[in-house]
Amino acid sequence: MINKIDSLESLIKLIPVIKAAVPADLSIAVCNLEQFLSYHPGEQINLNIKVGQKINPEEPLSIAIREKKRLQADVPAEFYGFEFTGTALPLFDVNNNVIGGIAVQIRKQTELKNIAEQIAQALSEANDQIKTVAEGSHTLAKYIQELIIQSAQAGDNVKETDVVLAMIKKVADQTNLLGLNAAIEAARAGEKGKGFEVVANEIRKFSRETVSSTQKVNEITGQIQKVTRQMADSIKEMDKIGSNQATSMQQISKSVMEIEQLSKRLNEYAHKL
């Protein structure tokens, strides 16, 4: 029987050695069948037990002595201001008679447990936010790809406009040549060609105006092409940044998940303390 001792006094002398040998903050009380004979508080756990203080018949140590069995219970923080685990053990002499008892209290690492739980909760929420941002980055990348396609289509459309303008200019040049030939023929006809000369001049005027307008439209389409190319370059750069951002968010999410797992292990360890 491990709780058989020579005397309560010999056990009391060993308590400082026990406290020094155990790597935990303990408080230890020893009693006979009626009162406490010794109390050694810990650094952060002190139940203010006085030597000579009578044992309450309802407290675990008294029950353990009466029932001759070991008792253990967790005491909530509302009783003493902090949470601790208490163990009550009856003590027997060499003749197996109960002569007293020993009570050991060890403070539970509630603060560590709470911190671990808060860290786990914060990391879980942060991971959820990162996932939301990452999903947004993927959606943004999808829209950017669509913009790149649309930008390329716009560039192709502008190029088709160049073809149309070239055709219009060619028709205008031909019309101008036709007007010039008509003016020459009208001059040859003399007075009879006066009316035809007026029509020829109007044709040439219309042709010059068409060429001038075509040039202006060509300049505008050139500017549109330039802006479209710049927009395409900007969109591609945005796509590159968005892709890098999505990759970074995935890496951050992975790191947060690893920290979250470590936090859970810390929480499990804190519950075991």
Return Rg in Å.
Answer: 48 Å
Order of the strands making up the biggest sheet: 2-1-5-4-3
Q: Give start-end ranges of low-pLDDT stretches.
A: none
Q: Structural class of the helix and strand makeup?
A: alpha+beta
**Could you give the order of the helices and strands?**
HEEHEHEEHH
What is the distance, rounded to the nearest whole angstrom, between the alpha carbons of the first and last residues? Answer: 27 Å
Family: Belongs to the methyl-accepting chemotaxis (MCP) protein family.
Domain Methyl-accepting transducer: 112-273
Protein name: Methyl-accepting chemotaxis protein
Organism: Metabacillus halosaccharovorans
Could you characterize the architecture of this molecule?
Helix 4 packs antiparallel against helix 5 (194-272). With 273 residues, the protein is an alpha+beta fold. A hairpin with a 5-residue loop joins strand 4 and strand 5. The chain has helices at residues 8-21, 60-67, 77-80, 110-189, 194-272, and strands at residues 26-31, 36-40, 71-75, 84-92, 98-107. The longest helix has 80 residues, at 110-189. It is 68% helix and 13% strand. The protein has a five-stranded antiparallel sheet, with helices on both faces.
